[in-house]
Amino acid sequence: MGDPMSTSAESLNAAKTARLDLKTTEFAKEFIRRAATISGLDMTSFIMASAFKEAEAVMENYNRLALSDKAFSRLHEILGEGDEAVTPPPALVKLMRGKNQRARDRQLRGR
Fold it and tell me: Where along the sequence do coiled-coil regions lie (predicted)?
């Protein structure tokens, strides 16, 4: 898969055939126009670059969450696969029995 940033740049530089109408205040329009001029861009390019940057961040976050959900689902599947009556290793059983015994001993001493 290609670099998302170069794909974004290519998309912004492609022939502009879609229209996006915006309503705003005179103050916001003038403020954006001044910022665009300072940046050396026309208003459309300035607005689209800013909006595209924010949209990429939103999509990246969404895709990360979607991937996390998929990974969690796959982990859940893996943990659910196999023999349901899994016997723990003897060392784990011994360890847990020892911890339980020590906890009981502490309770008896605390009474």
Answer: none
**Residues 6 or more apart whose Cβ sits within 8 Å of residue 46:** 32, 35, 36, 39
Per-residue model confidence as pLDDT tens digits over 51-85? 999 999 999 888 887 777 777 777 777 777 765 66
Please report which helix (H) or strand (E) contains residue 11, including its range.
Answer: helix 4-13
Which of 73, 4, 82, 12 is closest to 48 using CA atoms?
Answer: 12
Q: What is the mean pLDDT of residues 22-40?
A: 96
Answer yes or no: pTM beyond 0.90: no
CB 36 within 8 Å of CB 45:
yes
Sign of CA dihedral 97, 101, 102, 103: positive
**Which residues, in sequence order, are CB contacts of 12 under 8 Å at separation 6+?**
45, 48, 49, 52
